[in-house]
Design goal:
Blueprint lengths: L3 E7 L9 H10 L7 E3 L2 E5 L4 H4 E3 L14 H10 L4 E14 L18 H10 L5 E3 L6 E3 L9 E11 L6 E3 L1 H11 L3 E7 L1
Antiparallel strand pairs: 1-8, 1-10, 2-3, 3-5, 4-9, 5-8, 6-7
């Protein structure tokens, strides 16, 4: 089952992966996340005491559930569906594209035209990561697939902080959180909103 997610990731797609244990320790120190909870073959983090000070919710009265269900039988299904706010950390040596299932075509950085064959280029890159070169059919711009502008519906990276249970554009990280993350990676972070 697909869930809505707010994902934070370094702005530079080539930023080396962070150590997930160090990332978790920093996020616990600033109280964005609580203690890890085992879930199937993974671990998630419930929201910490300062989650609502570090993630700013927009709108008049957003409906958010911060507590995991008490019933262990429903925990896995509710996590997969994003029925409550909780976080997953992903730190991988391989470059990964995280994208919304209904992602709009990215734009060429040269001419800003939509790149209609982007899925074919991404599929080829996923089969052979060395094949990251890309050229625009409209203006001839040539570069890497990581140069494509997906706006806030997709992003390349090695490190992802995934917050489930947040609808697109419903929340944004505060400056305090972005500053803490920038200290860890020596560079700025951005947000994307996806359903996957």
């Amino acid at each position: 089952m697909a869930a809505y997610k707010l994902i934070l990731l370094p702005t530079d797609p080539l930023c080396p992966p962070l150590n997930c244990e160090q990332l978790a320790a920093e996020l616990q120190a600033i109280k964005l996340i609580g203690e890890p909870v085992a879930l199937d073959d993974d671990v998630f983090y419930p929201t910490g005491d300062h989650f609502l000070q570090l993630i700013s919710f927009l709108g008049c009265s957003p409906m958010i559930e911060l507590h995991p269900p008490a019933d262990p039988a429903t925990l896995s299904a509710d996590s997969a569906a994003g029925k409550f706010c909780h976080l997953f950390l992903c730190c991988t040596a391989s470059l990964v594209l995280r994208a919304d299932s209904q992602c709009s075509p990215p734009r060429c950085p040269g001419c800003r035209q939509p790149v209609t064959d982007w899925k074919t280029a991404i599929a080829a890159w996923q089969k052979n990561p060395a094949q990251a070169d890309w050229a625009c059919k409209h203006c001839g711009y040539s570069g890497q697939l990581t140069d494509l502008s997906f706006r806030k519906t997709a992003g390349f990276g090695h490190t992802f902080i995934e917050i489930r249970g947040i609808y697109p554009s419903e929340a944004v990280p505060t400056e305090a959180l972005l500053t803490a993350l920038q200290r860890l990676s020596d560079g700025p972070w951005k947000t994307i909103y996806i359903k996957e």
